[in-house]
Amino acid sequence: MSGSRSPSYSAGRQRWSAPHSPRGPVLSAGSCGGFTIVEVAMTTFVLALAIVTSITTLQRAFSNLDSARNFSIAGNILQAEMEKERLLGWARVSDPNFQPTLDSNHLRNPAIAGRFTLSRTLVVLSGRNNQMVQVTLTVRWRSYDGRPLSRSFTTYFTQGGLNGFYAGQS
């Protein structure tokens, strides 16, 4: 009776137990275990698609993180340089040949010093008796994927300061 099922009694109920084999469950002659080649191919395709999508998403996320970090650094550079410009006298501010350099605090970091460049553009506003200039500071750099990026701050300066300029106009 080793190959057939035999009823066993437990607590007044009849149960059927499977035959025991030292090599595990007994399979019938028509059944086989495993997956078909189509199932394996579909699973491989789905996993490959998930992995490629994840890698692409991570690459884009790192690119965006790098851009955000660099825009923040550029803003800090521009703010520091703009504050230095505000401390200059009229002769220096209105000099079209004056080109500022990166602050020494920024130059200490080699990633900033070798990557970011600072430029200055000056426009004399002729309708203001040459007593007003527009100064634009621009920081340029290349992103993680090699795209050129820039950020600019623009401000106006008047000879004798803003109050002196408007007081002299009346």
Mean pLDDT: 82
Radius of gyration: 38 Å
Helix and strand pattern: EEHHHHEEEH
Describe the largest sheet. 3 strands, antiparallel
Strand content: 15-25%
Q: First CA to last CA: what distance?
A: 120 Å
**Spatial arrangement of strands, main beta sheet:** 3-4-5
How does the overall form come out from the CA principal axes? rod-shaped
Roughly how much helix do the residues carry, as a percent range?
40-55%
Written account of the structure:
By secondary structure, the chain is α+β, with helices and mostly antiparallel strands. It has one domain. It contains five helices and five strands. The chain has helices at residues 37-86, 90-93, 104-107, 110-113, 161-169; strands at 7-10, 13-16, 117-124, 132-142, 148-158. Strand 3 (117-124) and strand 4 (132-142) form a beta hairpin. The protein starts with 6 loop residues before the first strand and ends with a helix.
Present the secondary structure layout.
Blueprint: E1 7-10, E2 13-16, H1 37-86, H2 90-93, H3 104-107, H4 110-113, E3 117-124, E4 132-142, E5 148-158, H5 161-169
Antiparallel strand pairs: 1-2, 3-4, 4-5
Summarize the structure.
By secondary structure, the protein is α+β, with helices and mostly antiparallel strands. The protein has five helices and five strands.
List key phrases describing it.
alpha+beta, 170 residues, two-stranded antiparallel sheet, 5 helices, rod-shaped
